[in-house]
Amino acid sequence: MNLVRGFIVAKELFSTIESFDAEEAKYKKIFEDLKAMSLEKAKLESEKRALQFKLDLKRATEASQKRAEEAQNLAKDQTLTAETTLAIANSSLEATVVEKEKSLATAKQEMERVRAE
Asked: Where are the domains of the chain?
């Protein structure tokens, strides 16, 4: 009878060990799944950071290009203003030269008239 009880206890013990082994395998599988998900999460976070960097770089590039265009437009405006100012000054100078030439011609005529008298 003790032998039968021992056999039953041994059978229950082996059954319990098998149950523990099954539980251990189950938890190992869960651990491996969590580890894989953790690696996948790290990979996705890395990709997210890379995409964010690209987006930030694109925004910075666009802002830089916009500032360059604004500076170029300002330079064009300043060039046009300078050209306009120069044209006005040149026109004024030409008018002054024409006026002085007329005065000189008038003075020469007056001198010749005075000499002739």
From this structure: 1-90
